[in-house]
UniProtKB/TrEMBL annotation:
Source taxon at top rank: Bacteria
The protein, known as: N-acetylglucosaminyldiphosphoundecaprenol N-acetyl-beta-D-mannosaminyltransferase
GO molecular function: N-acetylglucosaminyldiphosphoundecaprenol N-acetyl-beta-D-mannosaminyltransferase activity
Job description of the protein: Catalyzes the conversion of GlcNAc-PP-undecaprenol into ManNAc-GlcNAc-PP-undecaprenol, the first committed lipid intermediate in the de novo synthesis of teichoic acid.
Organism: Paenibacillus eucommiae
A Pfam family that the UniProt record links to this protein: Glyco_tran_WecG
Length: 246
């Protein structure tokens, strides 16, 4: 299929951030039945899918997979897939808040610690006054508390459910409860609430344009080095991976 680029078997649609926002806007406007699950696919998720059949099934059932990271985009171009640009969870969240401010969308924010979750909601309310923040909850909850959270989200019926529980746990949680959440769209956004709340500093724009945001994070959070080691392993495996045409 010419409209997708396959990375280790995972089909990434060849769409830009603008096209992604247009698609998600239509999902909200059309008020279709069922939750539209957006997976921000990074190298970690792609690698995990190679050995985790359940996760691969969740990804296959998602409504949309975006290229979360320059590594995904670069591998696609080396292999002739030519993804147009990265569509990261953090960037997509900001763009959706901007669009939501114009169109008066409603959001629910799940994830991060209690203080960070509350601060992120405060910043969003101040920055995007036309966005309806229906509620939120920190990401450290028991199974019993999780069921209460699901019920709260179901009763509030947000246009967009933002899940910042980390990958791939966010994807598993969304999929497990998707029939009960009563939201129009659910997106896993990694540590984006930490950035909005000011707990974690995002790389300056010049670092982002040079595609070395990962290096900025590593310098500022040296404890991430083990996690960052997946990037060269992903690049080598993905480049030499024999893709199916299916």
């Amino acid at each position: 299929m010419n409209n997708v680029a396959r990375i280790m078997g995972i089909p990434f649609p060849k769409i830009t951030m603008e096209q992604t926002l247009e698609l998600l806007g239509k999902v909200i406007d059309q008020d279709q039945a069922g939750l539209f699950h957006v997976v921000t696919g990074n190298p970690e998720i792609v690698m995990s899918c190679q050995n985790d059949k359940q996760l691969r099934s969740i990804i296959d059932e998602a409504g949309l997979i975006t290229a979360d990271g320059i590594g995904i985009v670069m591998v696609s171009r080396i292999k002739g897939g030519h993804l147009p640009e990265r569509v990261t969870g953090c960037d997509l969240l900001i763009k959706m808040l901007e669009a939501g401010n114009r169109k008066k969308w409603s959001f629910y924010f799940l994830g991060a610690d209690e203080v960070t979750n509350r601060r992120a909601s405060e910043v969003i309310t101040q920055t995007y006054p036309n966005v309806s923040v229906l509620g939120g909850h920190h990401g450290f909850f028991s199974e019993e508390e999780g069921l209460k959270i699901v019920e709260e989200i179901r009763s509030l019926e947000p246009d967009v459910l933002i899940v910042a529980l980390g990958a791939p746990y966010a994807e598993r949680w969304i999929h497990k409860h998707k029939s009960s959440l009563n939201a129009k769209i659910a997106i896993g956004v990694g540590g984006s609430l930490d950035i909005i709340a000011g707990k974690v500093k995002r790389a300056p724009e010049i670092w982002q344009k040079l595609h070395v945001e990962w290096l900025f994070r590593l310098i500022n959070q040296p404890s991430r080095w083990r996690r960052q080691m997946i990037l060269p392993r992903f690049a080598i495996r993905a480049i030499f991976f024999k893709e199916s045409n299916k």
